[in-house]
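Figure 6 in text form: structure in, sequence out.
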């Protein structure tokens, strides 16, 4: 990249940059560090699209970087499929600051390139965008969101025609085409002109109705649920995001009569004023839900993140509400689906469960018991989506359920991304039927531990901001790769799986996984969307305490010194 000062001056001098943006840039004229961080590189269009801090500059999320990315994506799509203008692109957005603006700018650039766009009239969840791409037969889709990141972020996710986030090797090809575009060399068309030419189409209720109707078909045991849904008390929070309307609608249509919505977190708000982080993985995000749960005597508290692809829960116990990890929910849903489908005679002989390599191994003995295949894939739900596509193309394997430890679940092939709307529905179905059978979800989880073994997982994210941070992350990965450990926390390393070299037929990825004795493991990977390295730990023990102790020792040793 050219000198950051020269790039800064180029933005200030460009006729393409509006006065308000130039005013913001002039305001940082004396802050050399800030100028460097905003201009030392272009905001990278990575494997998951764009994600960055909202501000003016080449390395920030703003209308110019959104237009730039869209022009590169449009160039690629036109190159690989001349029918792209007719098939069109679906576009959605969440509650973050400027999401609606970025959605309209995305449409303006596609329209400027002669490509039809289907744009939602208001915020919608990620999974509905994935569904829409398939439902309308679009060439692809774009979702404006930074998922569960802090309020200062926004982002841009690109989807392929199968409803999946763009998979390899197409992601790298798109990245190259985006990088080939000069920042301000984009084609745009204003909405009025695009609508007159039939290139901008607003969508809404018709898609909502089709999406909800399709999700309802994913209920596992609707006959039993009809007997008990009304007895389950649910507190729900959308955390100021896109889940509010669709989650409440699906729960109502499935017969749940006692749904209490956290009033302070009900309406969209890009500041996310009631939480430190709008992420249901963080139990603090569900604190207002817990308080409401105490008042109404809720059986379960359900929370979805701003773009409603992740769902987290807290469960009522005699001692209060207990948060469940994504792995725990994944284990319970896997067991519930396998058990219920066997009971109802709908378990296929070639069924498969799919999970990421950093998710719990507790489902392995479970899948074996029910005769289902367990497929491990790289982190990122698009790799689960790829497995669904492969099974459809080859006719081998019937998808049953997919999950990631990061609170993402999918049951059904209607979408190819994690879905907190259907996830909330299935979790509440399982909770209602479990209660109907005289058990709590805590009881259910404990019975699974006793049957399949005590497993404990944890994850640590370590942030490395800026140029120095990027160099530090590279050094950590290089050191771990070039001098692999022989043992970790007293446990012998049985195998080092280096996914950068390709492993077990999976795409190459900068990930290291240590397989240890006693069914323990450690996985290390830089985040694809944030300046972080994530350390994942999995442990197995004779009881809950031993498993937790192993996990703690692994975590302490692997993260020491960073």
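Output sequence:
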């Amino acid at each position: 990249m050219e000198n950051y000062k020269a790039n800064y001056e180029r933005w200030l001098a460009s006729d393409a940059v509006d006065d308000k943006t130039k005013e913001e840039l002039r305001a940082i004229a004396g802050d050399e560090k800030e100028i460097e961080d905003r201009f030392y590189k272009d905001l990278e269009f990575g494997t998951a699209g764009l994600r960055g801090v909202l501000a003016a500059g080449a390395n920030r999320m703003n209308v110019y970087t959104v237009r730039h990315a869209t022009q590169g994506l449009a160039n690629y799509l036109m190159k690989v499929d001349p029918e792209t203008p007719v098939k069109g692109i679906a576009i959605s957005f969440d509650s973050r600051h400027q999401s609606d603006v970025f959605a309209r700018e995305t449409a303006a650039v596609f329209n400027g390139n002669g490509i039809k766009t289907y744009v939602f009239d208001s915020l919608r969840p990620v999974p509905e965008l994935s569904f829409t791409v398939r439902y309308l037969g679009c060439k692809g889709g774009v979702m404006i969101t930074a998922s569960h990141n802090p309020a200062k972020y926004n982002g841009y996710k690109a989807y392929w025609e199968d409803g999946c986030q763009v998979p390899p090797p197409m992601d790298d090809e798109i990245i190259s085409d985006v990088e080939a575009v000069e920042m301000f060399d984009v084609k745009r068309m204003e909405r009025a002109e695009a609508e007159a030419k039939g290139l901008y189409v607003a969508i809404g209720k018709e898609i909502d109705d089709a999406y909800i109707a399709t999700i309802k078909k994913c209920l596992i045991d609707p006959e039993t649920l009809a007997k008990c849904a009304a007895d389950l008390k649910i507190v729900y929070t959308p955390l100021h995001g896109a889940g509010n309307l669709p989650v409440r609608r699906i729960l109502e249509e499935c017969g749940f009569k006692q749904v209490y919505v956290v009033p302070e977190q009900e309406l969209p708000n890009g500041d996310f004023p009631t939480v430190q982080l709008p992420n249901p993985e963080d139990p603090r995000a569900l604190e207002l839900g817990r308080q409401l749960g105490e008042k109404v005597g809720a059986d379960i508290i359900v929370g979805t993140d701003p773009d409603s692809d992740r769902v987290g829960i807290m469960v009522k116990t005699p001692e209060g509400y207990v948060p469940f990890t994504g792995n725990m929910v994944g284990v319970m849903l896997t067991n519930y689906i396998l058990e219920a489908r066997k009971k109802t005679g709908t378990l296929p002989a070639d069924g498969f469960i799919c999970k990421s390599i950093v998710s719990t191994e507790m489902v392995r003995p479970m899948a074996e018991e029910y005769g289902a295949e367990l497929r491990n894939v790289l982190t990122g739900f698009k790799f689960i989506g790829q497995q669904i596509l492969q099974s459809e193309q080859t006719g081998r394997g019937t998808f049953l359920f997919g999950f990631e430890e990061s609170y993402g679940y999918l049951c059904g092939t209607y979408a190819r991304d994690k879905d907190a709307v259907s996830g909330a529905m299935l979790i509440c179905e399982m909770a209602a039927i479990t209660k109907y059978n005289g058990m709590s979800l805590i009881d259910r989880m404990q019975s699974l531990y006793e049957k399949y073994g005590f497993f404990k997982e944890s994850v640590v994210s370590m942030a490395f901001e800026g140029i120095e941070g990027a160099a530090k992350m590279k050094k950590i990965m290089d050191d771990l790769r070039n001098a692999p450990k022989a043992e970790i926390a007293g446990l012998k390393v049985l195998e080092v799986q280096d996914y950068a070299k390709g492993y077990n037929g999976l795409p190459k990825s900068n990930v290291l996984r240590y397989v240890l004795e006693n069914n323990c493991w450690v996985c290390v990977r830089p985040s694809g969307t944030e300046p972080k390295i994530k350390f994942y730990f999995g442990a197995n023990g004779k009881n809950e305490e031993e498993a937790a102790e192993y996990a703690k020792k692994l975590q302490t040793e692997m993260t020491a010194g960073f």
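Caption detail: The chain has 20 helices and 21 strands.
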